[in-house]
Amino acid sequence: MKDNYGRDIYYLRLSVTDKCNLRCIYCMPETGVKKLKHEDVLSVEEIAEIVQATAACGITKVRVTGGEPLVRRGIIDICKMISETEGIREVCLTTNGILVPQFASELKAAGVNRLNIGLDSLNHVTYNEITREGILDDALAGVHAALETGFDAVKINAVLIGGKNDKEILDLLELTRKYKVDVRFIEIMPIGECANWAADRFIGAQCVLQLAPELCEVGTDGVAKKYMLPGGLGSVGIISPISSHFCPTCNRIRITSDGILKSCLHSAEEINLRGQHGAELENTVRWAIFEKPRKHELDNGKISSAARNMNAIGG
Question: Does residue 3 belong to any structural domain of this protein?
Fold first, then answer.
């Protein structure tokens, strides 16, 4: 389905929980968050009905997110149900990797095609500081388990944070020489916990190209510009939502774990889908897609209008 600006909207980012087993500094406040009550989180039946409605509106790709989706009870059944929904051709999952060794084979059997694993540092101390309580070896075990399981693609997401992990860009790049992984560098956005961070925390993703001029551009992959190191097994992605926003080609909507549809990550507008069924639900999704905002305003120096932390929206 196309929106009012002619963009083809076929990608749903679906959060199944606001809970997480880490406390990343750009996602959650240090004091933690007020967790949703059990009854406030979408049930499996509600998720099934919403996915069916979005598929009827042209959604063909679903990314399961959180929080940390692998802490959601019944996550394998949820992924299987999504993959078996008529019209859905691709199911992906974004995770911090900690629980991947436990679930990798079941996820693949349930129809999950791709995994994105958050890994912002290869330094044990820095990783622990960014995640507040994570152990690097646990995340690395998740990466290896994903590769061994044989998903169609394994991507590593590294959020660039000035003064924290910007000295590790070359180390992260080297992963693409050793493994068939896509390492994607993502500009941090002024949303939630990051909204009032100092300016020097925000780094343009182009610094990756400055540090590694040998990178060769090989095309695009969704919102990422793709590059490769000479002789590399994997690829490098650069995602620049601030310095070179991709709003003109944005193809996604988001649904939070409590049933709120957001047609733009940074918009304050939220549409509650809970309690809607059948034609009413489908019509609401169609309206939200058609009325998707033209662009965000972050490139004009503004902070996000989203009134939630990322864990409450979905990564």
Answer: no
What does the DSSP assignment read for 161-204?
-TTTTGGGHHHHHHHHHHSS-EEEEEE--SSGGGTT--GGG---
Bridge partners, residue 221, by sequence: 224
The CATH number given to whatever domain includes residue 75 is 3.20.20.70
For residue 6, tell me if it sits in a domain. no
Give the integer Cα–Cα distance in Å for 149 and 169. Answer: 27
> How many structural domains does the chain have?
1
Q: What are phi and psi of 13, to 5 degrees?
A: -100, 110
Strands 260-262 and 252-255: antiparallel
What's the rounded Cα separation, in Å, for the pair 50 and 281?
Answer: 8
- Whole-model pTM? 0.94
Q: Which domain holds residue 26?
A: 11-313
End-to-end CA distance of the chain: 23
Look up residue 277 and give its two tokens: 């069924």
The answer to whether position 194 is within a domain reads yes
Distance CA 182, CA 153 (A): 8
| CA dist., res. 38 & res. 44, Å (int) | 12
pLDDT along the chain (315 residues), means of 10: 94 95 88 82 97 98 96 97 98 98 98 98 98 96 98 97 96 96 91 83 91 95 92 94 80 95 85 96 97 77 65 71
Q: Is residue 255 part of a domain?
A: yes
Distance CA(301)–CA(45), nearest Å, equals 41
The encoded tokens of residue 143 equal: 């990466």
Query: In whole angstroms, what is the distance from residue 127 CA to residue 111 CA?
Result: 30
Q: How far is CA 48 from CA 14, 109, 273, in A?
A: 11, 19, 13
